[in-house]
Amino acid sequence: MIQTWQITPTDNLKLELDASTLDEVTQRLPEGYYSTFRTFDGGTRVLGLTSHLQRLYKPVATPEVDEPAFRRQLSALLQPYRPGEARVRAIMTKEGQVYLSIAPLSLLPREVYENGVRVEITELQREHPRLKSTSFIGRSDSERKHLAKEGIFEALLVKDGEILEGMTSNFFYVEKGDNVPYLGTARGEILLGITRETILDIARGRGLTVKYQPLKLSQLEAIHEAFITSSSRGVVPVVQVDEVTIGQGSPGPITKELLAAYEAHVLETAEKI
User: Fold this and answer.
1) Architecture of domain 3-104
2) Whole-structure pTM over 0.85, yes or no?
């Protein structure tokens, strides 16, 4: 069950919204900016919470609630979910109002990470790629319903024949240059995801070369591995894009290595709320 509140500097107002998903909640609120994340350590920590808050606060001139008050209210509202974990969507409207929606965390089946997922190409584009605007949720609603109906995990946004990112994630691929594997991902015209930055740091720390090159659709059949990242789902292997099988059709060794490293990293570095 999703619960939603409007947050003030000293209190919160619970809203009664007829919505069964976070996206439906978002479409019933004033337009603005949002960030979605999950908790760790019994609802007490969030990976990259400071970065999530910067995503909300930076575009707005006069927020009604400062960051310390936001953290206090978030911690208080998470209390009934503890010691379990929660999925949270924070919204800052263009006028500076703050909303929080919280639901018990529903983890993906382990088979998703072990077997990988199928994704598809979409013609959707973000109006302002660097801003996580709630307006994009409304514009992508029909695509989301299509994915759910067809059992497709995610849609990849493409521009000029190049894969930029996922509709709700960032996209990575593994290729070999001079027989040495490297990790590729777009850097321009995408949302700079917080999990994306974590994976880039982990990859470099493990000696893996990173190249900021969006993957051309014409190169799909040549890559060895692919995966997507998001704050709620972590690292999810991709084994099929449209009708193209990636690599051997199962998660590759580098994807598995980064997935394991990410899960260990989260437990060590998630911020106290």
Assistant:
1) 2-Layer Sandwich (3.30)
2) yes
